[in-house]
Amino acid sequence: MTCLLSAEDVSVRYGSLAALAGVDLCVHDGQRHALIGPNGAGKTTLLNVLGGSTRPQRGTVRFAGRDVGRLGPAARARRGINRIHQRPAVFATLTATENVVVAALPRVIPQRRWWPGARRRDAHHRAGPLLEQMGLADVAAVPAGHLAHGQRRQLEIAMALAGRPRLLLLDEPAAGLSAVEVGRLVELLQALPRAVAVLLVEHRLDLVYALSDTVTVLRDGRTLAAGTPDEIRSSPLVRQAYADGVA
Amino acid sequence: MRDEVVRRARGAVAALVLAGLVVAPWAVDDYTTAILARTLALALVGVSVALLTGVAGMPTLGQTAPYAAGAYACAVLGSRISDVGVVQLAVAAAAGAVLAALTVPLVVHARGVIVLMITLAIGELVVTVLGRWRSVTGGTDGLAGIPAVRPFWGLPPLASDQARYLYALVVVATLVGAVLVLLRTRAGLLLRAGRDDETRLRASGHRVPLYVAGAHVAAGAIAGAAGSLLVVAQQYISPADFGFDTSALLLLGVVIGGTASVGGALVGAALVIAVRDWLFGVLPGHAPLVLGVLFVATVYLLPGGVSRARGRLRPPRAASARSDAPPARDRATIPELRR
Questions:
Q1: Residue of A171, B120, B183, B255 with fewest CB within 10 Å of its CB?
Q2: ipTM, interface predicted TM-score of the complex
Q3: Residue B330 with chain A: CB contacts under 8 Å
């Protein structure tokens, strides 16, 4: 089976510090793939490389068979790689609906292309069901800056889906959420269409095991282990790494 | 419901102000009418500053550059080729847009204070060029005796201050209306999104530099058109009309009015020109002091400007939604000085 997204021999250095040292990764179509590891393992750096906001000193990144290593975040998003940030990034003065419309616009191809406003109208039609799916229909007309943290997270997921992604990069989506909000988040992520592959970076292992079917463990910028959640859970190597890293 | 009432009240106030502006030439003397016409030209530049500062999130001190380009293009055209207003207006807007387009590479990747510095430098450079290119611009003496404009082919020239003022009013009202319509389109939505979070906009797949460049050129065209109105109002221009004090005054007016509001920009620009030109006679030598006090008071008491004063007097909109961020619109009205 070919990889939807593959990273080969990716290395990133910040001065004398090797944040990533020859990491390989393969995410398949529709896969739920988690990246875990102790603090400083290089998880977010790898996500930055895959999302296009950090350029590696060495290695290649391919998406859907094409080298995307030289592309920035915007070009990768247009190809189907969307990212959800650790802190919910929304457009504060725009309403929830407008936020989703803006996110949908680059991937909307209206039927009547040259009709004035056709693109925006189509994006608008796409926003309604997505907000409903995320439980945000009641606050569709509220500026995103006035939404609660959990609602902003849900809005960001709606925005990511509006861009018709083939791969979602989730950077600690549960950060700052209450227990109730985390429960809601897990439901939403479990309900994502299977056509969308997910690469999840998360500290909370209960969430990782609930959401993923493959787990890759990083430590000191290298791949320590990869396997199913059960294999990773029972790996003494991984337990040791967490014990060392967290302590 | 409350928003609907506010919207209607705002529309009624705008209609009243417009009606007042239409009858103003019959209520005041010729000198005041001439000042009002010049104020309209500067208010239109203020709109272009608001478009860049408040809507696109690019605070600028350089809109006097396309303003000057438009004014000189109009003056040269009016003196040598055509006295038809729509032609002059189109050429002035094109001149402003071309100058803005030429400077796009300098500003498109910069933000905040760096944009302020770059645009300030561009404005000063243009004033220097105008002062030295004597064969075309008349140097520091400027261009005088520019023939009165006729709005369309076949119409008589606008010989009185009243007629010139009304011509300026029609042009400003039309262009402001066009800007308001533009802000309701996809372009306006994307500019506001970029102002809120440019990184997020890029992460959604948008070509942000293209939007910034488009806003810069559009604002240049508006400032250029405003330049042609200055020529119509004064029939004389010199580099002194486009110096740093004009840039600072415009930014001051837009901040006072509320950078995210086109109406606020008009009000703010009118206010600072009024203070500068009318207080000049009442309190000789003290106008800059009054302007400074006005600016400090506005920034301290109304950080969102006059146009957002209403927002400080009413409760948050969404009862169910928590507001752990500052009111977003107010925050966005202050020129962003990030990076």
A1: B183
A2: 0.85
A3: none
